[in-house]
From TrEMBL:
<feature type="domain" description="PpiC">
    <location>
        <begin position="170"/>
        <end position="272"/>
    </location>
</feature>
<feature type="signal peptide">
    <location>
        <begin position="1"/>
        <end position="32"/>
    </location>
</feature>
<comment type="similarity">
    <text>Belongs to the PpiC/parvulin rotamase family.</text>
</comment>
<dbReference type="InterPro" id="IPR050245">
    <property type="entry name" value="PrsA_foldase"/>
</dbReference>
<protein>
    <submittedName>
        <fullName>Peptidylprolyl isomerase</fullName>
    </submittedName>
</protein>
<keyword id="KW-0732">Signal</keyword>
<dbReference type="InterPro" id="IPR046357">
    <property type="entry name" value="PPIase_dom_sf"/>
</dbReference>
<dbReference type="Pfam" id="PF13145">
    <property type="entry name" value="Rotamase_2"/>
</dbReference>
<keyword id="KW-0697">Rotamase</keyword>
<dbReference type="GO" id="GO:0003755">
    <property type="term" value="F:peptidyl-prolyl cis-trans isomerase activity"/>
</dbReference>
<dbReference type="InterPro" id="IPR000297">
    <property type="entry name" value="PPIase_PpiC"/>
</dbReference>
<keyword id="KW-0413">Isomerase</keyword>
<dbReference type="InterPro" id="IPR027304">
    <property type="entry name" value="Trigger_fact/SurA_dom_sf"/>
</dbReference>
């Protein structure tokens, strides 16, 4: 469903089911992906017949001695959300831009390694620390994984009942509009548009004109005009502030007075209203299950680390600590 940006807010307030429960944030970062083995490809000046025949998959793109293999590209696409993956499939330009960027990264790393940049002490330390973080996250995930049967149906029902406010659906208004574009600060054009709009509103309220027909013939927002002004169902939160109170007071079939905005005049009609409601348990169950498992895993991780700290006495040498802090003070 397409909506007109001239009278909708640019930011859409969408409910994220994966974050419905307070304190159920995702436990840590996603596991780091293991680097993919890429096909070894000869420089582009080398005939194709000399390309390494032992490569697992042919290269999709090459830059000198570096390449992106089919397998590497496949893994990249698989970790994308479905919508982004589909967009990549439909827009080759974007995908080729990613390939170019990936090749550039590999070429820079290769050049740095030829200069033994990876052997510098600070780089070695950073690599070791990054490796330790991957090990830490992976290990903690393994020891804190909830049981396969958690949460139970009773756990889900209890969490659902305790968090009803998180599953609220706002009232939805099916809106139609007639939009008359007016140049900014053109008082004469605004007055003329206002006169036309007032006449239309009067005719429609008296039953002498149809909203859809006027929208098709006169609305400057052509996408909705083709549908007789219809913009589908929207919550008032997606409307610009000046229209929210107006729309919330309209009953189905009622038409607003002309509303003056910076871009022109709007006439709105509410054709249907869906009252506020609560999402059914079956609808939110998959996201609720994921949220509860993440929460359980986070609690298990914290308990595991706390138990490890309690198992041994932690000793802090205050004197050494003070000396170190003194050494690292800003001059």
């Amino acid at each position: 469903m397409m909506t007109h940006p001239k009278f909708l807010l640019q930011t859409v307030l969408a409910l994220s089911l994966s974050a419905l429960l307070l304190g159920c944030g995702k436990n840590g970062d996603a596991q780091a992906q293991q680097p993919q083995k890429t096909a070894t490809v000869q420089p582009t000046s080398t005939p194709a017949s000399t390309v390494n025949a032992t490569a697992a998959t042919p290269a999709v793109a090459t830059l000198g001695q570096v390449s992106v293999s089919q397998e590497e590209l496949k893994q990249f696409l698989l970790v994308l959300p479905a919508a982004q993956r589909e967009a990549m499939r439909n827009d080759r330009v974007v995908l080729e831009q990613w390939l170019r960027s990936r090749l550039a990264e590999k070429a820079v790393v290769q050049q740095a390694k030829t200069q033994e940049w990876d052997k510098r002490s600070e780089i070695h330390h950073a690599i070791e620390e990054a490796q330790n973080q991957v090990i830490l996250r992976s290990y903690l995930q393994s020891v804190s994984e909830p049981a396969a049967d958690y949460p139970s149906e009773q756990d889900l029902q209890t969490a659902y009942q305790a968090n009803q406010d998180q599953f609220q659906l706002p009232a939805m208004y099916r809106l139609s509009q007639i939009f008359l574009s007016v140049p900014d600060k053109d008082e004469q054009a605004l007055a003329q548009a206002k006169k036309r709009a007032d006449a239309w509103v009067k005719q429609m309220r008296e039953g002498k004109a149809e909203f859809a027909a006027l929208a098709k013939e006169n609305s400057d927002e052509k996408v909705s005009a083709e549908r007789g002004g219809d913009n589908g169902f929207l919550p008032v939160s997606q409307l610009v502030p000046a229209m929210r109170s107006i729309v919330s007071r309209l009953e189905p079939g009622q038409i607003s007075d002309p509303i003056v905005q910076a871009d022109g005049l709007h006439i709105l009609k509410v054709t249907d209203i869906r009252p506020a409601s609560v999402r059914a348990l079956d609808e939110v169950k998959p996201a609720l299950r994921d949220a509860l498992r993440r929460q359980r895993q986070q609690e298990a991780t914290q308990a595991y680390v706390a138990a490890m700290l309690d198992a041994d006495t932690v000793a802090v040498d205050g004197k050494v600590l003070s000396q170190l802090l003194q050494q690292t003070q800003e001059p």
